[in-house]
Specification:
Layout lengths: L7 E5 L10 E6 L2 E2 L2 E2 L4 E6 L2 E7 L14 H10 L4 E10 L9 E2 L3 E4 L27 H13 L9 E4 L8 H10 L3 E3 L5 H7 L4 E10 L10 H26 L3
Parallel strand pairs: 1-6, 1-7, 7-12, 9-10, 10-11
Antiparallel strand pairs: 2-5, 3-4, 5-6, 7-11, 8-12
Bound molecules: hypoxanthine.
Hypoxanthine (HPA) binds next to strand 7, strand 11 and strand 12.
């Protein structure tokens, strides 16, 4: 039986433009005061829980990372009544153990993006304010996702630093070396401003970062879309299993 007060949002990134196991009830095209979402919100049930799915890059995949209207997406989810957000992000692996198909549940983030609409508190939409962002991800939700992975025998890295880059191009070796020195374990293009906007809206937010390639200079292979696609295909099964395990566990309190 689904929990009436709980509505879990899943934001799908590259390789997750639709959610095949979701029992869809309806879709809603949403335009907020800050513009349109990337795609219609897709409402339904998964493992007996109410879920809303949003394709971050649109469906079909069309929006590059810097053109996603993150504010509209997050505002629409808030207005739809979501109680928590699980973000799925494809990333490059920087640290040694972050090989293709590995999963990191990051606990920290460094923002290297620029020029994105990255706050609701801009003095126009909302008066200036400063939110605490010491812990950018919801620790409880992240721990529950780790636990769900463990209970399905899926290995994840339970902490890690997500470096958010501008894209859409991949990085140079020097850029990845810099991120590594900064302490980044994985690199992706969509982690910010999504995480901070969730915080500004007081929405618990955690990330499942799926490694789809070794970051630039971290292997002797050129990064190809074919390799990325094949890691996505294999790795996404694990992501689905973790989310299903997490949602199933919600019934038990
Ligand atoms: N860099 C940045 N973003 C990414 C990568 C990468 O290597 N792979 C997937 N998203």
């Amino acid at each position: 039986m689904s929990n009436a007060s709980s509505l879990t949002a899943i934001i799908g990134g590259t390789g997750l433009n639709e959610y095949p196991s979701l029992l869809i009830s309806h879709e809603k095209v949403v335009t907020t005061d800050l513009g349109a979402t990337s795609a219609p919100l897709v409402f339904g049930e998964l493992m007996g829980q109410s879920v809303v799915f949003l394709a971050r890059h649109g469906h079909p995949h069309k929006l590059p990372p810097h053109k996603v209207n993150y504010r509209a997406n997050m505002l629409a989810l808030k207005q739809a009544g979501v109680s928590e957000i699980i973000a799925v992000n494809a990333v490059g692996g920087i640290s040694e153990n972050m090989a293709p198909e590995a999963i990191c549940i990051p606990d920290q983030i460094i923002d290297y993006t620029h020029g994105r609409e990255d706050t609701f508190f801009d003095g126009i939409y909302r008066p200036l304010d400063h939110v605490d962002f010491t812990y950018p991800y919801d620790q409880d939700l992240a721990a529950q996702l780790s636990f769900a992975a463990e209970s399905k025998n899926i290995i994840t890295q339970k902490t890690g630093v997500y470096g958010a880059t501008q894209g859409p191009r991949l990085e140079t070796i020097a850029e990845i070396n810099r991120l590594e020195k900064d302490g980044c374990d994985v690199v992706g293009m969509t982690g910010m401003p999504e995480a901070v906007l969730a915080r500004e809206l007081e929405l618990p937010y955690a990330c499942l970062a799926l490694v789809v390639n070794r970051a630039a200079g971290k292997s002797d292979r050129v990064i190809t879309m074919d390799d990325i696609r094949s890691s996505l295909e294999v790795g996404m099964h694990k992501i689905h299993a973790i989310i299903a395990g997490y949602l199933a566990s919600k019934d038990n309190g």
